[in-house]
C-alpha cells in the first residue's frame, strides 16, 4: 500500500475544526449547559406536533424551495421571495456567502474577537481573513474596519450583537460605516441574537438592506425560536446575492422537519417572544448581580454575558463545571456564559461571587 494520501487543498492546513460548546456532564449532580447560547426552553407542543407530522414523510426529499416558509417570511419582512434564501443554520448561509463572493487573493473583514466560525469559513474559502480588534470596550471598531477595506475586500461581517461580547453597534455609527463601504463590497449584518435586543438605538439590519443592495442580513431560528438542533437560518439580500445563495445551497439541505417547525414557530411567536422576554429579564438580573459583585461586564444585548478573565479563564471555567454549569472558555481571553434557567444562572453567580473575592 502506498503512503501517499489524496491531495487536499493547502488552505485547509492549520484551520481549526469548529469547537462546539461543551455538553453538560452526564450523570453529574446538576449540570446545566451554558456553553452554546442555546434556548433553555423545551420545544412548544404545537411545534412538536408540526415536527412529528413532518417526520412521518422523511422518506421524501423536502421542498427544496422552502415555498411555504418563504411566503411567510416574505410577508413578515415585506421583502420579495426572491430576496430570501434559507440554509442549514445561519452559519450554513454565511458559508454560502463566502463561496459566492470570496476566494484566494480576496479579503474578508470582521471584528475580533467575534463569532468563531468566521475565521474558519473564511479560510476554507481560500480568502484572507482581516481581523480588526474590538475597541477596549469590546465593541466593533467600525472606523478601523472601514480603514481596513482595500481593493481586495469582498465581504465584511458585522455581528450585531457581537458573539461573544454581547455588545452592539447603533444606528448612526452603522449608517456612517455603511456610507464608507464601496458598493461592490458585501456587508453581512449577522443578527443571530436580534430578538434579545432591547436598546432602541440598535437598528434592525433590514432597515439598511432596503436601499442598499450590498447589505445582507442573516437571521436564525436557532436562538430565540429554539430550533438549534433542526438547523435552519436565512438571509435577506437583494439580487444577485440572493440568487447566488440559491446556487451555492446544498440541494435539499433544509429538512422538511426544520421548515415546518420554523413555520409553526412563527405562528407561535407570541409565546416564543414571551420566553425571550423572560430570558432578557434573566440577562439583566445576571448583569446587575455581576456588577454588584464588582465585575466589569460589557452591556449585553444578547442571551449571554462576557467575562474578560484573561489568564484566569481556564480556572474559572473549571470552577463553573465543578459547581454544575458548563460555560464557554476562550483560552487566555475570557468566558462566555449563556443566560439559561434561573437555577443555572444562580449557580453561575455563586461561582462569580466566590471567584471575584479571590482575584
Ligand atoms: C453570531 C452568530 N451567527 C450565527 C450563528 C449560527 O447559528 P445557526 O447556524 O445555528 O443559525 C451563531 C451561533 O452561535 C452566532 O453566534
UniProtKB/TrEMBL annotation:
Region (Disordered): 1-20
Start and end residues of each Aminotransferase class I/classII large domain: 33-349
Enzyme Commission number(s): 2.6.1.57
Biased composition (Basic and acidic residues): 1-12
Transmembrane segments: none
GO MF term set: histidinol-phosphate transaminase activity
CDD domains per record: AAT_like
Required cofactor(s): pyridoxal 5'-phosphate
Record field: catalytic activity: an aromatic L-alpha-amino acid + 2-oxoglutarate = an aromatic oxo-acid + L-glutamate
InterPro entries found in the cross-reference section: Aminotrans_II_pyridoxalP_BS, Aminotransferase_I/II_large, ArAT, HisP_aminotrans, HistidinolP_aminotransfase, PyrdxlP-dep_Trfase, PyrdxlP-dep_Trfase_major, PyrdxlP-dep_Trfase_small
Keyword vocabulary terms for this entry: Aminotransferase, Pyridoxal phosphate, Transferase
N6-(pyridoxal phosphate)lysine modified-residue sites: 223
Database matches in NCBIfam families: hisC (TIGR01141), PRK03321.1 (NF002878)
Subunit structure: Homodimer.
Assigned protein family: Belongs to the class-II pyridoxal-phosphate-dependent aminotransferase family.
Job of this protein: Aminotransferase that catalyzes the conversion of aromatic amino acids and 2-oxoglutarate into corresponding aromatic oxo acids and L-glutamate.
Protein name per its UniProtKB record: Aromatic amino acid aminotransferase
Gene source species: Streptomyces hirsutus
Amino acid at each position: 500500500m502506498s503512503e501517499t494520501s489524496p491531495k487536499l487543498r493547502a488552505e485547509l492546513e492549520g484551520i481549526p475544526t469548529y469547537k462546539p460548546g461543551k455538553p453538560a456532564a452526564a450523570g453529574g449532580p446538576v449540570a446545566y449547559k451554558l456553553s452554546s447560547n442555546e434556548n433553555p426552553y423545551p420545544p412548544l407542543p404545537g411545534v412538536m406536533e408540526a415536527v412529528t407530522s413532518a417526520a412521518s414523510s422523511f422518506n421524501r426529499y423536502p421542498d427544496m424551495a422552502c415555498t411555504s416558509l418563504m411566503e411567510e417570511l416574505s410577508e413578515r419582512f415585506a421583502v420579495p421571495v426572491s430576496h430570501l434564501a434559507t440554509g442549514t443554520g445561519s452559519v450554513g448561509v454565511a458559508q454560502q456567502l463566502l463561496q459566492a463572493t470570496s476566494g484566494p487573493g480576496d479579503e474578508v473583514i470582521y471584528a475580533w474577537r467575534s463569532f468563531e466560525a468566521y475565521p474558519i469559513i473564511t479560510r476554507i474559502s481560500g480568502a484572507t481573513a482581516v481581523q480588526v480588534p474590538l475597541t477596549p470596550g469590546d465593541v466593533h471598531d467600525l472606523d478601523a474596519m472601514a480603514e481596513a477595506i482595500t481593493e481586495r475586500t469582498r465581504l465584511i461581517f458585522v455581528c450585531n450583537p457581537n458573539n461573544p461580547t454581547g455588545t452592539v453597534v447603533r444606528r448612526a455609527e452603522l449608517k456612517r460605516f455603511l456610507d464608507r463601504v464601496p458598493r461592490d463590497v458585501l456587508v453581512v449584518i449577522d443578527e443571530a441574537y436580534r430578538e434579545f435586543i432591547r436598546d432602541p438605538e440598535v437598528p434592525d439590519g433590514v432597515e439598511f438592506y432596503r436601499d442598499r443592495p450590498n447589505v445582507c442580513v442573516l437571521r436564525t431560528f436557532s436562538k430565540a425560536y429554539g430550533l438549534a438542533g433542526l438547523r435552519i437560518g436565512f438571509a435577506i439580500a437583494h439580487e444577485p446575492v440572493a440568487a447566488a445563495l440559491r446556487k451555492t445551497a446544498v440541494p435539499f439541505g433544509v429538512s422538511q422537519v426544520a421548515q415546518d417547525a420554523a413555520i409553526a414557530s412563527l405562528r407561535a411567536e407570541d409565546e416564543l417572544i414571551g420566553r425571550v422576554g423572560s430570558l432578557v429579564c434573566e440577562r439583566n438580573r445576571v448583569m446587575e448581580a455581576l456588577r454588584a459583585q464588582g465585575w466589569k461586564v460589557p452591556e449585553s444585548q444578547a442571551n449571554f454575558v462576557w467575562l474578560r478573565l484573561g489568564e484566569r479563564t481556564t480556572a474559572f471555567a473549571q470552577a463553573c463545571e465543578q459547581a454544575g454549569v458548563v460555560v464557554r472558555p476562550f483560552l487566555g481571553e475570557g468566558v462566555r456564559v449563556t443566560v439559561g434557567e434561573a437555577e443555572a444562572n444562580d449557580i453561575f453567580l455563586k461561582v462569580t461571587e466566590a471567584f471575584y473575592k479571590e482575584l
